Amino acid sequence: MSPASRTAAEPGVAALLAEIAAGAAERERLDVSPFEQVAAVAAAGLGALSLPVDEGGRGASVREVLAFVVDLAEADPIVAHVLRTHYSQVLGFLRQPDPDVRRRWVDEVRAGKVFGNAISETGPSAAGGHEFDTRLDEVDGRLVLNGTKYYSTGTLYADWIAVAARVPEDRVATVMVPADRAGVDVVDDWDGMGQGRTGTGTTRFTDVAVEPGDVLGARPRLEPRPPGDVAFLQLYLHALVAGILRSVATDAAGVVRSRSRTFEHAPVPQAVDDPILQETVGRLSATAWVAQSTVLTAADAIDAVMEAWAKGEPTDELLLAASLAHVSVKVHLDRVGLEAATALFDVGGASASSRARNLDRHWRNIRTITLHNPASYKAAAIGRHLVSGDPLPVNGYF
Fold first, then answer.
1. Terminal CA-to-CA distance of the chain, rounded, Å?
2. Contact 228, 313 (CB under 8 A)
3. What is the greatest pairwise CA distance in the chain?
4. Which first-to-last residue range defines the signal peptide (predicted)?
C-alpha cells in the first residue's frame, strides 16, 4: 500500500477512512448508498481542505487535495467520486473577486455543506460542447430556472447544486440552488455497471425560484472556463483510479494469504510461498504506486496554472503543460488500470470470482470511470499537437 497523504495520516482522519473502508465492499455489493459516509467526511471538515487555514481549512493545494482523494478512493471510490464537484466548486468560491460573495460561500463550505452539480445535458449537441437548453429567465420580476440535467454526480448527496443555465445575450450563468427547493427533482436513476451509488442521475428544475444572490456570475457561452478548472476535474477521475488500484494491490495480497490450497502442479505447496503469485502482487503494487505518482505530478502542473492565474500572470504555457500532463495520465492509466484489475484474479482460484468477495467491483469501477471520455481521442489530440502543432481541444472534457 502506498503511504497515506498528510491529511489521511492525522489520527482522526485515519480512523474515519478505516471506518469508511470497512463497509465499502459490502455496501457496493448490496447497492447501498453511502449517505452516512459522505456526511461524515463533510462533518470532519474534509470538504474544506482547500480553504485557507485562517478560514477554517487546511490551505491544501491541488496536489494535497488529490492526495487525500486517492486515500478516500482507496477506502471507498463511491464516496470519493460523490465529492468531485464539491472540491472543484470550493476552488471556484476561493476565486470569487467579490469579498462578500466569497465569504458567503466559504461559510457554507466551512459549515460542512456539500455541493453537487447539474451541468451536463443530453441531446444532439456534442458532449463537452457549449449548448444548454436549461434556462434562467426573469418572469414577472423574479428569476426562474427550468431544465433537465443528466450525469449529475453527487447531487443526490448535496445541499447545494451548481447549475449551468442559459441567460440572455448568449451567456451561461452558474446558479447555486438548494437541493430541497420547490421544483427541484433529484432522480436516483443512474444504472451504470460501476460507481453505481454516486448519484449520477437526472436532475429536473421546474419553475424553480432563484435568488439574485445565488447567481455566481455569467460568461459568454463560448468562453473557456477559468484555467485549471477542467484539468482539475479530469485529473480527479484519475485520482479515483489510483485509489482503486491501491485496493487492488491490497486485495491481491489478501487473496494469496487466504488461500488454503493451490494446484498440484504449482511450483510450491503453499500459495503464500509461490513466486509467481508474489510477482503478480508486486506488479500490482508497483502499478498502484506509479498511478498515484503520476496523478500527483500532474497535480503540481495544475497548481502552477492556478497560482499564476491568481497572480494575474500568463497561463497559456502552463495550461498547455497541465493539459498534456493530465491527458497523458489518462491515456496511460486507463489501460494499465484495467489490466491490473483483471490481473487481480490471477492470484486466486475459482473462488476469486465469488460474488461474496466482490473483487470484480474494481474492474467495473475503473472501466466506468474511464468511459467519461475516450482515451483514444485524447491520445490522438496529443499526437496531432506534437506532430502538427495543432492546439489541444478546449471543452469540459479535455
1. 30
2. no
3. 81
4. none
d(CA 157, CA 154): 6
AA identity, residue 257: R
Residue 247's CB is within 10 A of a number of other CB atoms, namely 25
How many other C-beta atoms are found inside a 10 Å radius of the C-beta of residue 289? 17
Compute the distance between CA of residue 253 and CA of residue 247 in angstroms, rounded to an integer: 10
Closest of 306, 299, 256, 298 to residue 276, by C-alpha? 256
Secondary structure in 3-state letters for 214-240: HEEEEEECCCCCCCCHHHHHHHHHHHH
Contacts of 150 (CB under 8 A, 6+ apart): 120, 121, 122, 201, 202, 203
Cell 463550505 belongs to which residue?
Answer: 109
Instruction: Name the DSSP class of 11.
Output: H
Phi first, then psi: what are they for 344, rounded to 5°?
Answer: -50, -35
The amino acid that residue 153 corresponds to is: T
Strands (E), the chain: 115-118, 135-139, 142-149, 160-167, 171-178, 184-187, 202-210, 215-220
User: pLDDT for 332-367, tens place per residue?
Assistant: 999 999 999 999 999 998 989 999 999 999 999 999
DSSP at 391: P
* Euclidean distance between CA atoms 165 and 237, whole angstroms: 25
* Cα(60)–Cα(303) distance, integer angstroms: 11
C-alpha–C-alpha distance, residues 216 and 169, integer Å: 17
In this structure, what C-alpha cell is assigned to residue 197? 451509488
Phi–psi pair at 144, nearest 5 degrees: -130, 135
CA 292 to chain centre: 14
User: Grid coordinates representing 113?
Assistant: 455543506
Fill in the amino acid letter for 206.
T
Query: Partners of 162 in the beta sheet?
Result: 117, 176
Which residue(s) pair with 135 in the sheet? 146, 166
Contacts of 124 (CB under 8 A, 6+ apart): none
Closest listed residue to residue 344, CA positions, set 251, 213, 206, 231: 251
Please name the amino acid found at residue 252: A
**Per residue in 215-268, pLDDT tens?**
999 999 888 888 789 999 999 999 999 999 999 999 999 999 999 999 999 999
Q: Residue 331, class by beta-carbon neighbours within 10 Å (0-12 exposed, 13-18 middle, 19+ buried)?
A: middle
